[in-house]
Write a structure and sequence with these properties.
The complex is a heterodimer. By secondary structure, chain A is an all-alpha fold. Chain A has helices at about 1-30, 35-65, 75-105, 115-140. The longest helix of chain A has about 35 residues, at about 75-105. Chain B is mainly alpha-helical. Helix content of chain B is about 80%, strand content about 0%. Chain B starts with a helix and ends with a helix. The chains are: A mainly alpha, B mainly alpha. The interface between A and B is large, with 55 and 54 residues.
Chain lengths: ~140, ~190
């Protein structure tokens, strides 16, 4: 029962990360093509729900597998992952509120086209950071 | 090009109506839902990371997590998320990102502190009730007078901790909004 639960938690963790990585890459491509702004607001909504699910299941994984001890090799990798996630959270709140503000401004601002530069950069950075976190997670799991 | 010309000919009222503010579904009729979910989840994750970092650095995380259990841990997270959504909705009664809106900093700080205290009370209260329920289910007993005293002290501690955390998160929100405005404005200058 416990093993099945832990496998389910791990599955949800991986699927949530897949949504975040795939969504950020799709958003980056869409920003380059100046896609519909409404799509970005939907992704932001999904991004934060996905991030919360990742955090909850990530802590659940730590509980099931045992949290690494600081000072060990595994612990150092975990520290890097924790730092990368903190940067992701802080950077993403700036990106998300920026996207929502741009969406609110659409129709009032004649400079809306230039805002796509902000979207393109922020989604490419998000995708790069998420991929770095996936690499760190891979090292934690198999390294 | 034709679209740009069309924009120039639109009246102020038409431009106002073309924004998406009115089309967002709201949680309780006043706050845009995407913004509410984004901010509330940010608050929850900031709190989680702030707790996780020191707990891990001190070595206490590896002892605390297994004793909590997976399902109770997920339940606690869901409870905190729900309470944070309601508290954030109440604390930010106006949209801080509107183009013409002047942010009322003192109101956001005050409401943030009170909302944090309420989340603290709600969380401690729920955990206290679960603990009492578990004791009764396992056939245990307790002195009602002692339980009330312990409950009141726990709720008071929860309120104070929540007040500090809520005020801290409100300060963080104001900083983030200032950074967002600067970053989005800078995109215009390019």
């Amino acid at each position: 029962m416990a093993t099945a639960l832990h496998l389910a938690v791990r599955l949800v963790h991986v699927l949530a990360m897949a949504v975040l990585v795939g969504g950020s890459l799709a958003a980056w491509i869409l920003a380059r093509d100046r896609g519909d702004l409404a799509w970005f607001t939907r992704y932001e909504w999904a991004f934060w729900v996905g991030l919360a699910v990742l955090a909850a299941t990530g802590v659940g994984n730590l509980g099931a597998l045992g949290a690494p001890r600081p000072g060990t090799e595994w612990g150092r990798t975990f520290t890097w992952k924790l730092g990368a996630v903190s940067v992701l959270v802080l950077g993403s709140i700036v990106r998300s509120l920026g996207v929502l503000q741009i969406y609110t401004l659409e129709g009032r601002s004649c400079e809306i086209g230039q805002k796509y530069n902000f979207l393109r950069r922020s989604y490419s950075l998000t995708a790069a950071l998420l991929i770095a976190i996936v690499v760190l997670a891979e090292v934690l799991a198999h390294g | 090009m034709a679209e740009a010309d069309d924009n120039e000919e639109r009246t102020d009222e038409q431009v106002e109506n073309s924004t998406h503010e009115g089309s967002w579904p709201t949680a309780v009729g006043r706050f845009p839902r995407p913004l509410l979910v984004v901010l509330a989840t940010f608050h929850l994750l900031a709190l989680t990371l702030a707790a996780l970092g020191p707990a891990y650095a001190s070595g206490g995380l590896s002892d605390a997590l297994p004793s909590l259990g997976t399902l109770p841990g997920l339940g606690l997270f869901a409870l905190l998320w729900g309470l944070t959504l309601v508290a954030t909705d109440w604390a930010l009664s106006t949209d801080p990102l509107g183009p013409d809106l002047v942010v009322d900093r003192s109101a956001i700080l005050l409401r943030g502190g009170v909302a944090g205290a309420l989340v603290g009370i709600g969380t401690v209260g729920a955990l206290f009730l679960v603990a009492i329920g578990q004791t009764l289910l396992e056939g245990g007993s307790f002195q009602p007078g002692s339980a009330v005293l312990v409950g009141v002290i726990a709720l008071a501690i929860g309120a104070v901790v929540g007040l500090v955390v809520g005020t801290g998160l409100a300060v963080l929100d104001l900083l983030v909004v200032a950074v967002v405005r600067r970053v989005v404005s800078a995109a215009d200058a390019e």
